[in-house]
Amino acid sequence: MASKLQTRRREEHQRYKDDVKREGKSFFPYAIYHDTVMSLVTVAVIIGLSFVWYFTADDTPEGEGLEAGVLGPWYAEKADPGTISFVPRPDWFFYFLFYLLRIFKWPETVVLGTVGIPTICLILLIALPFYDRSPERRPLRRPVAMVAAVLTIISMAVLTWKGATAQEALGTEIIASGEVDAWAEEQGFADNPVAVEGAELFAESGCLNCHVYLGVGNANLGAPDLSEVGATGRGVDYFKDYVSNPAQFGNNVMISYSYLGDENLTRLATFLDASRGGQQSEDGG
Ligand code: HEC
Questions:
Q1: Residues 2-46: pLDDT tens digits?
Q2: pTM: predicted TM-score of the whole model, two decimal places
Q3: Whose CA is nearest to atom 2 of ligand 1?
Q4: Where is the domain boundary, 44, 78, 112?
Protein backbone atom coordinates (compact mmCIF):
# COMPACT_ATOMS: atom_id res chain seq x y z
CA MET A 1 0.00 0.00 0.00
CA ALA A 2 1.37 3.35 -0.96
CA SER A 3 1.55 5.89 1.83
CA LYS A 4 -0.59 9.00 1.84
CA LEU A 5 2.33 11.16 0.81
CA GLN A 6 3.25 8.86 -2.06
CA THR A 7 -0.32 8.82 -3.31
CA ARG A 8 -0.39 12.57 -3.15
CA ARG A 9 2.87 12.89 -5.02
CA ARG A 10 1.67 10.54 -7.73
CA GLU A 11 -1.45 12.64 -8.08
CA GLU A 12 0.65 15.79 -8.43
CA HIS A 13 2.80 14.12 -11.06
CA GLN A 14 -0.25 12.93 -12.94
CA ARG A 15 -1.64 16.46 -12.84
CA TYR A 16 1.61 17.75 -14.32
CA LYS A 17 1.47 15.15 -17.09
CA ASP A 18 -2.14 16.07 -17.81
CA ASP A 19 -1.23 19.75 -17.90
CA VAL A 20 1.53 19.07 -20.38
CA LYS A 21 -0.85 17.06 -22.53
CA ARG A 22 -3.49 19.78 -22.41
CA GLU A 23 -1.15 22.75 -22.85
CA GLY A 24 1.07 20.81 -25.21
CA LYS A 25 4.36 22.14 -23.78
CA SER A 26 6.94 19.95 -22.13
CA PHE A 27 9.94 21.02 -20.09
CA PHE A 28 12.25 20.15 -22.98
CA PRO A 29 12.64 22.07 -25.16
CA TYR A 30 10.16 24.84 -24.22
CA ALA A 31 11.22 25.72 -20.68
CA ILE A 32 14.86 25.22 -21.57
CA TYR A 33 14.40 27.55 -24.52
CA HIS A 34 12.84 30.22 -22.28
CA ASP A 35 15.70 29.96 -19.79
CA THR A 36 18.30 30.20 -22.54
CA VAL A 37 16.74 33.32 -24.03
CA MET A 38 16.47 34.97 -20.59
CA SER A 39 20.11 34.12 -19.77
CA LEU A 40 21.24 35.63 -23.05
CA VAL A 41 19.23 38.79 -22.39
CA THR A 42 20.81 39.09 -18.92
CA VAL A 43 24.33 38.64 -20.27
CA ALA A 44 23.62 41.13 -23.08
CA VAL A 45 22.43 43.73 -20.54
CA ILE A 46 25.61 43.26 -18.47
CA ILE A 47 27.80 43.60 -21.57
CA GLY A 48 25.82 46.68 -22.59
CA LEU A 49 26.28 48.26 -19.17
CA SER A 50 30.01 47.64 -19.26
CA PHE A 51 30.20 49.41 -22.62
CA VAL A 52 28.28 52.36 -21.17
CA TRP A 53 30.62 52.42 -18.17
CA TYR A 54 33.73 52.23 -20.34
CA PHE A 55 32.83 54.80 -22.97
CA THR A 56 31.15 57.42 -20.77
CA ALA A 57 33.81 57.50 -18.05
CA ASP A 58 36.75 59.83 -18.39
CA ASP A 59 40.27 58.46 -18.17
CA THR A 60 41.81 61.61 -16.75
CA PRO A 61 45.02 60.57 -15.08
CA GLU A 62 45.21 60.41 -11.32
CA GLY A 63 45.35 63.72 -9.50
CA GLU A 64 43.67 65.77 -12.23
CA GLY A 65 40.21 65.11 -11.00
CA LEU A 66 38.55 61.88 -11.96
CA GLU A 67 35.48 62.51 -14.06
CA ALA A 68 32.91 59.86 -13.39
CA GLY A 69 30.75 58.67 -16.27
CA VAL A 70 27.13 57.64 -15.93
CA LEU A 71 28.19 54.46 -14.15
CA GLY A 72 31.18 55.72 -12.19
CA PRO A 73 34.86 56.39 -12.93
CA TRP A 74 37.25 54.01 -14.60
CA TYR A 75 39.37 53.90 -11.54
CA ALA A 76 39.01 55.49 -8.13
CA GLU A 77 41.98 56.98 -6.34
CA LYS A 78 44.91 54.68 -5.74
CA ALA A 79 44.82 52.81 -2.45
CA ASP A 80 47.14 54.23 0.21
CA PRO A 81 48.99 51.34 1.86
CA GLY A 82 50.30 53.65 4.59
CA THR A 83 46.93 54.80 5.84
CA ILE A 84 46.31 54.44 9.55
CA SER A 85 42.86 55.95 9.71
CA PHE A 86 41.01 53.89 7.13
CA VAL A 87 37.97 52.14 8.50
CA PRO A 88 37.20 49.08 6.39
CA ARG A 89 33.50 48.69 5.58
CA PRO A 90 31.97 45.98 3.42
CA ASP A 91 29.55 46.57 0.56
CA TRP A 92 25.99 47.04 1.75
CA PHE A 93 24.90 43.52 0.80
CA PHE A 94 27.43 42.13 3.28
CA TYR A 95 26.34 44.33 6.18
CA PHE A 96 24.38 41.46 7.70
CA LEU A 97 27.49 39.25 7.81
CA PHE A 98 29.55 42.19 9.00
CA TYR A 99 27.19 42.79 11.90
CA LEU A 100 26.87 39.09 12.67
CA LEU A 101 30.63 39.08 13.16
CA ARG A 102 30.44 42.07 15.48
CA ILE A 103 28.01 40.21 17.72
CA PHE A 104 30.67 37.60 18.44
CA LYS A 105 33.33 39.62 20.20
CA TRP A 106 35.25 36.84 21.87
CA PRO A 107 37.97 34.85 20.12
CA GLU A 108 36.41 31.45 20.87
CA THR A 109 33.09 32.51 19.34
CA VAL A 110 34.30 34.46 16.28
CA VAL A 111 34.36 31.21 14.29
CA LEU A 112 30.61 30.90 14.93
CA GLY A 113 29.95 34.23 13.25
CA THR A 114 32.38 33.75 10.35
CA VAL A 115 31.95 30.08 9.53
CA GLY A 116 29.45 28.39 11.84
CA ILE A 117 26.16 30.20 11.34
CA PRO A 118 26.58 30.98 7.60
CA THR A 119 27.57 27.36 6.90
CA ILE A 120 24.61 25.98 8.85
CA CYS A 121 22.27 28.28 6.91
CA LEU A 122 23.78 27.22 3.58
CA ILE A 123 23.51 23.53 4.43
CA LEU A 124 19.88 24.01 5.45
CA LEU A 125 19.25 25.75 2.13
CA ILE A 126 21.01 23.09 0.03
CA ALA A 127 19.21 20.30 1.88
CA LEU A 128 15.82 22.00 1.54
CA PRO A 129 14.55 19.75 -1.31
CA PHE A 130 15.42 16.68 0.76
CA TYR A 131 13.68 17.56 4.01
CA ASP A 132 10.82 19.59 2.61
CA ARG A 133 9.16 17.01 0.35
CA SER A 134 5.61 18.20 0.49
CA PRO A 135 4.23 18.99 -2.98
CA GLU A 136 2.06 21.71 -1.45
CA ARG A 137 2.86 25.09 -2.96
CA ARG A 138 0.23 27.47 -1.56
CA PRO A 139 1.95 29.71 1.01
CA LEU A 140 -0.91 29.55 3.51
CA ARG A 141 -0.73 25.77 3.60
CA ARG A 142 2.98 25.88 4.48
CA PRO A 143 3.11 27.55 7.90
CA VAL A 144 6.55 26.23 8.94
CA ALA A 145 8.25 27.25 5.68
CA MET A 146 6.50 30.62 5.70
CA VAL A 147 7.48 31.40 9.30
CA ALA A 148 11.08 30.32 8.59
CA ALA A 149 11.24 32.47 5.47
CA VAL A 150 9.75 35.52 7.18
CA LEU A 151 12.10 35.13 10.17
CA THR A 152 15.09 34.85 7.81
CA ILE A 153 14.08 37.99 5.96
CA ILE A 154 13.46 39.92 9.18
CA SER A 155 16.76 38.88 10.76
CA MET A 156 18.73 39.71 7.62
CA ALA A 157 16.99 43.08 7.39
CA VAL A 158 17.73 43.87 11.04
CA LEU A 159 21.38 42.76 10.73
CA THR A 160 21.78 44.81 7.53
CA TRP A 161 20.30 47.85 9.25
CA LYS A 162 22.49 47.41 12.32
CA GLY A 163 25.55 46.90 10.11
CA ALA A 164 24.76 50.01 8.08
CA THR A 165 24.37 52.20 11.16
CA ALA A 166 27.12 50.63 13.29
CA GLN A 167 29.41 53.23 14.80
CA GLU A 168 33.09 52.80 14.13
CA ALA A 169 35.65 54.00 16.61
CA LEU A 170 36.94 56.42 14.00
CA GLY A 171 40.04 58.14 15.28
CA THR A 172 39.46 61.55 13.75
CA GLU A 173 35.97 61.65 15.23
CA ILE A 174 37.33 60.79 18.63
CA ILE A 175 39.97 63.47 18.45
CA ALA A 176 37.51 66.02 17.06
CA SER A 177 35.10 65.33 19.91
CA GLY A 178 37.77 66.37 22.41
CA GLU A 179 38.07 62.88 23.83
CA VAL A 180 41.87 62.91 23.79
CA ASP A 181 41.99 66.11 25.86
CA ALA A 182 39.61 64.51 28.33
CA TRP A 183 41.92 61.48 28.57
CA ALA A 184 44.94 63.71 29.17
CA GLU A 185 43.07 65.54 31.89
CA GLU A 186 41.81 62.41 33.59
CA GLN A 187 45.14 60.56 33.40
CA GLY A 188 47.16 63.64 34.29
CA PHE A 189 49.42 63.70 31.21
CA ALA A 190 48.04 66.96 29.76
CA ASP A 191 51.41 68.62 30.39
CA ASN A 192 53.26 65.92 28.44
CA PRO A 193 52.97 66.71 24.71
CA VAL A 194 54.58 63.41 23.66
CA ALA A 195 51.94 61.45 25.56
CA VAL A 196 49.15 63.60 24.08
CA GLU A 197 50.50 62.95 20.57
CA GLY A 198 50.66 59.30 21.46
CA ALA A 199 47.02 59.41 22.55
CA GLU A 200 46.01 60.89 19.20
CA LEU A 201 48.02 58.24 17.41
CA PHE A 202 46.35 55.61 19.58
CA ALA A 203 42.93 56.90 18.49
CA GLU A 204 43.99 57.05 14.82
CA SER A 205 45.76 53.73 14.58
CA GLY A 206 42.75 51.48 15.04
CA CYS A 207 43.72 50.34 18.55
CA LEU A 208 40.19 51.18 19.68
CA ASN A 209 38.76 48.59 17.32
CA CYS A 210 39.88 45.99 19.87
CA HIS A 211 40.77 47.89 23.04
CA VAL A 212 38.61 50.02 25.31
CA TYR A 213 40.20 53.15 26.73
CA LEU A 214 38.32 55.07 29.44
CA GLY A 215 35.00 53.80 28.12
CA VAL A 216 35.77 54.53 24.42
CA GLY A 217 36.28 51.82 21.79
CA ASN A 218 35.24 48.20 21.37
CA ALA A 219 36.25 45.21 23.46
CA ASN A 220 37.06 42.75 20.68
CA LEU A 221 38.98 39.51 20.35
CA GLY A 222 39.74 39.40 24.06
CA ALA A 223 41.81 42.59 24.09
CA PRO A 224 42.14 44.13 27.56
CA ASP A 225 40.98 47.58 28.67
CA LEU A 226 44.07 49.79 28.43
CA SER A 227 42.87 52.64 30.69
CA GLU A 228 45.40 51.73 33.38
CA VAL A 229 47.89 49.71 31.36
CA GLY A 230 50.81 51.84 32.59
CA ALA A 231 49.97 51.35 36.26
CA THR A 232 52.26 48.35 36.73
CA GLY A 233 55.21 50.54 35.74
CA ARG A 234 56.56 48.36 32.93
CA GLY A 235 57.93 51.49 31.30
CA VAL A 236 58.09 53.16 27.90
CA ASP A 237 60.62 50.73 26.41
CA TYR A 238 58.49 47.74 27.31
CA PHE A 239 55.45 49.19 25.51
CA LYS A 240 57.54 50.18 22.51
CA ASP A 241 58.78 46.65 22.30
CA TYR A 242 55.30 45.25 22.81
CA VAL A 243 53.56 47.33 20.16
CA SER A 244 56.28 46.86 17.56
CA ASN A 245 56.26 43.10 18.01
CA PRO A 246 53.25 41.77 19.96
CA ALA A 247 53.93 38.21 18.79
CA GLN A 248 57.01 37.87 20.98
CA PHE A 249 54.68 38.33 23.98
CA GLY A 250 52.44 35.56 22.71
CA ASN A 251 49.96 38.03 21.28
CA ASN A 252 49.09 36.79 17.81
CA VAL A 253 45.93 38.87 17.54
CA MET A 254 47.56 42.29 17.33
CA ILE A 255 49.59 43.09 14.26
CA SER A 256 53.06 44.59 14.54
CA TYR A 257 52.87 48.37 14.54
CA SER A 258 56.57 48.82 13.79
CA TYR A 259 55.55 50.44 10.48
CA LEU A 260 54.57 53.53 12.47
CA GLY A 261 58.25 54.30 12.87
CA ASP A 262 60.43 54.75 15.92
CA GLU A 263 59.27 58.26 16.80
CA ASN A 264 55.58 57.34 16.68
CA LEU A 265 56.20 54.19 18.68
CA THR A 266 57.85 56.31 21.38
CA ARG A 267 54.78 58.57 21.42
CA LEU A 268 52.43 55.59 21.68
CA ALA A 269 54.51 53.96 24.39
CA THR A 270 54.77 57.20 26.37
CA PHE A 271 51.01 57.49 26.22
CA LEU A 272 50.52 53.88 27.32
CA ASP A 273 53.01 54.33 30.15
CA ALA A 274 51.26 57.52 31.26
CA SER A 275 47.92 55.70 31.41
CA ARG A 276 47.82 54.99 35.11
CA GLY A 277 44.32 55.90 36.09
CA GLY A 278 45.35 59.33 37.36
CA GLN A 279 48.50 58.38 39.29
CA GLN A 280 51.59 60.24 38.11
CA SER A 281 54.32 58.12 36.60
CA GLU A 282 57.42 57.76 38.75
CA ASP A 283 59.86 59.00 36.15
CA GLY A 284 57.89 62.23 35.95
CA GLY A 285 56.48 61.46 32.47
C1 HEC B 1 43.02 43.16 16.40
C2 HEC B 1 42.83 43.57 17.76
C3 HEC B 1 43.85 44.49 18.39
C4 HEC B 1 44.29 45.70 17.93
C5 HEC B 1 43.86 46.43 16.68
C6 HEC B 1 45.21 46.19 18.92
N7 HEC B 1 45.33 45.29 19.92
FE8 HEC B 1 46.49 45.51 21.56
N9 HEC B 1 45.96 43.65 22.21
C10 HEC B 1 45.04 42.84 21.57
C11 HEC B 1 44.88 41.62 22.36
C12 HEC B 1 43.97 40.46 22.01
C13 HEC B 1 45.73 41.75 23.49
C14 HEC B 1 45.92 40.75 24.62
C15 HEC B 1 46.90 39.70 24.22
C16 HEC B 1 47.22 38.79 25.36
O17 HEC B 1 46.53 38.84 26.38
O18 HEC B 1 48.18 38.06 25.21
C19 HEC B 1 46.38 43.04 23.36
C20 HEC B 1 47.31 43.52 24.25
C21 HEC B 1 47.87 44.77 24.20
C22 HEC B 1 48.79 45.30 25.16
C23 HEC B 1 49.32 44.59 26.37
C24 HEC B 1 48.42 44.85 27.53
C25 HEC B 1 49.02 44.32 28.80
O26 HEC B 1 48.47 44.69 29.83
O27 HEC B 1 49.95 43.53 28.72
C28 HEC B 1 49.11 46.57 24.77
C29 HEC B 1 50.05 47.53 25.47
C30 HEC B 1 48.39 46.82 23.55
N31 HEC B 1 47.64 45.72 23.23
C32 HEC B 1 48.46 48.01 22.85
C33 HEC B 1 47.85 48.23 21.63
C34 HEC B 1 48.05 49.40 20.82
C35 HEC B 1 48.88 50.60 21.23
C36 HEC B 1 47.33 49.22 19.69
C37 HEC B 1 47.25 50.15 18.49
C38 HEC B 1 48.47 50.64 17.95
C39 HEC B 1 46.69 47.94 19.78
N40 HEC B 1 47.02 47.35 20.96
C41 HEC B 1 45.87 47.40 18.79
C42 HEC B 1 44.36 43.09 20.41
C43 HEC B 1 44.52 44.22 19.64
A1: 688 889 889 988 988 888 888 777 778 888 999 999 999 999 999
A2: 0.53
A3: 210
A4: 78
